[in-house]
Design goal:
The chain is an alpha/beta fold. Helix content is 38%, strand content 15%. The protein has six helices and seven strands, in the order E-H-E-E-H-E-H-E-H-H-E-H-E. Strand 4, helix 3 and strand 5 form a beta-alpha-beta unit. The chain is globular, with a radius of gyration of 17 Å.
Length: 234
């Protein structure tokens, strides 16, 4: 009997994390999920808690109880404000930057055992765009690029790959859009993306077709970041 591949997904109850968990399940994976909310998809072995909390991560690894073939860090908080609120800064950095580091650190032995792969969900905000609302969000997401490149170097000799996905405007409740989802003048493809489309990119990076890709950033943004200043809507 062929052993089912095993994935741990943070932020598995909603948005990109939920879509990724469901896609993995549909392709025959076993999925352990972490989220503050307990209402994850059927067949996800859920752990309710903060993905930043080492005890929650260890509980999820105990439930997994085996070599890990994939880690997906999709938990996060949306950009908000006010920009000069220090408590907001600390919370966003904790969830959007430190939590992926904590997950990589806790899961590395299991990933090594499974010759697995990790994908971190970032954003074009930070790497390509700033944020008036939340410099904390932009700083955390920009920091993920450095984290992923560094952890890719740490993990490569152990047979583990680490990559970054940077979504652009995605139609989820995470961050309500300023334009209709199907009419985006600020996106060359003319619409927002879907969580399922980001999940598809994540599945590619986890799979065998990406076996020679590590430390890379894959943008899933409908072309938004290739717009020149003259092409952006006023």
């Amino acid at each position: 009997m062929i052993e089912r591949r095993l994935a741990l997904v943070t932020g598995a109850a909603s948005g990109i994390g939920r879509a990724t968990a469901e896609r993995l399940l549909a392709e025959g994976w076993r999925v352990v999920g972490i989220d503050l909310r307990a209402d994850m998809s059927a067949d996800v072995e859920g752990v309710a808690g903060d993905a930043h909390d080492e005890t929650v991560l260890l509980r999820a690894l105990t439930i997994a109880d085996g070599p890990l073939h994939a880690l997906v860090c999709a938990a996060g908080v949306p950009p908000s404000g006010p920009w000069d609120d220090r408590a907001h800064w600390d919370d966003v950095l904790r969830v959007d930057l430190t939590a992926p580091y904590a997950a990589l650190r806790a899961c590395m032995p299991a990933l090594v055992a499974g010759k697995g792969s990790a994908v971190i969900v970032g954003s074009i905000v930070g790497s390509a765009e700033g944020s008036r609302r939340s410099p904390a969000y932009a700083a955390a997401k920009a920091g993920l690029a450095g984290l992923v490149r560094s952890m890719a170097l740490v993990a490569a000799p152990r047979g583990v790959r680490v990559n970054l996905v940077e979504p652009g405007p995605i139609d989820t409740p995470f961050d309500p859009p300023g334009f209709p989802a199907d009419s985006r003048p600020d996106v060359p493809l003319g619409r927002m993306g879907t969580a399922a489309e980001v999940a598809g990119a994540i599945l590619f990076l986890l799979g065998d077709d990406a076996a020679y890709i590590t430390g890379a950033t894959l943008r899933v943004d409908g072309g938004r970041t290739i717009l020149g200043a003259a092409d952006r809507p006023v």
